[in-house]
Amino acid sequence: MKIALIQLECGSDIEMNVERGLKAAREAADNGAAIISFPELSFQPFYPRNPAEGNVLDLALPVPGPITESFSDLASETATVIILNIFERDGDKTYDTTAVIDNSGEIAGRTRMIHITDYSGFHEKGYYLPGNLGPGVFETARGRIGIAICYDRHYPEYMRALSLMGAEIVFVPQAGVSGEWPPGLYEAEMRVASFQNGYYSALCNRVGMEGDLNFSGESFVSSPAGEVLARAAEGSEDILYCKVDLGALNDYHAHQLFLRDRRPELYRKWFGERER
Predict the structure, then answer these.
(1) Measuring CA to CA, which residue among 105, 114, 67 is closest to residue 86?
(2) Angle at which helices 66-78 and 14-30 pack, to 10 degrees?
(3) Which residue in 59, 223, 224, 242 has the most C-beta neighbors within 10 A?
(4) What is the pLDDT of residue 273?
(5) Residue 103 and residue 140: Cα distance in Å, rounded?
(6) What is the pLDDT of residue 179?
């Protein structure tokens, strides 16, 4: 099965961003992609680069809503699964939310980023409440898709939870900038998560300049063997294609050894309430 990770620059005109995203997704579908993923805040400005001011509710959009509806139509037309990340408004609350649209055009599910950070250029606590939907793993026509939104990927317990919930491939919508972390750390982190948990991981990163943030792109896919299978361009728009074999997951070490030999009864004994 072929997947596609789409790196697009995001301007201030949301409708234009959506149109460009639809065009890129159609190109990916025409090239045989069965699952198509976009980065974090795929079609909206990266608002957290500045501290929150005023009513941030006015910046957020509903899910389902106009963006998901546009891509639902495309998913149904092209029989593809499409993964979108949106700054979501739900009543008087806002979240960093990813929706998984099945190839029927129906939303298979959505999840919200659980771990919220705040530091220079990433003032997210003023925009996002901690997610209240739990780790996201969704059954689709193309397999069981897990979602780890940007900062959530740093938490091994979250990445393990996705495996225990049956994720076969984990998509990571991200907004990462050049020089934010030591070279190769994103890849090392996801390679280890894939190896330890027995799933493919596909990190889809934002690209382009916004204020003083230079989103680096460099999206990539890691196998359950911990190997990087494909990388996208650095600092420029790109569509990364990669073939994955979800039918072979049981052949990898995590399913042959690591998950089999877990001792959860001891973990509960050792950590007790501290782990809860």
Answers:
(1) 67
(2) 10
(3) 224
(4) 55
(5) 8
(6) 80
CB 170 within 8 A of CB 222: no
Nearest to 173 by CA among 233, 215, 132: 215
d(CA 267, CA 44): 41
What mean pLDDT comes out for the span 136-145?
97
Angle at 43 between CA 40 and CA 47, to 5 degrees: 70
* Max Cα distance, the chain (Å): 54
Give the rounded distance of the alpha carbon of 210 from its chain centre.
20
Q: 28-50 burial by CB neighbour count: b if 16+ within 10 A, else e?
A: bbeeebbbbbbbbbbbbbbbbbe
Identify the pLDDT of residue 274: 56
pTM above 0.85, yes or no: yes
Question: For tokens 């250029």, what's the residue?
Answer: 121
- 74-100 residues labelled b (16+ CB within 10 A) or e (exposed): bbbebebbbbbbbbbbeeeebbbbbbb
Alpha-carbon gap, residue 33 to 203, rounded angstroms:
16
**CA gap 152, 135 in Å, rounded:** 9
**Tokens found for residue 75:** 């998913």
Query: How many CA atoms lie within 13 Å of 199's alpha carbon, on the beta-carbon side?
Result: 27
For 150-173, b where at least 16 C-beta lie within 10 A, e where not — what string? bbbbeeeebbbbbbeeebbbbbbb
d(C-alpha 187, C-alpha 197), whole Å: 15
What does the alpha-carbon distance between residue 206 and residue 16 come to, in Å, rounded to a whole number?
16
153 Cβ contact list (under 8 Å, min separation 6):
159, 172, 174, 189, 190, 193, 203
- Which residue matches tokens 């889809």? 204
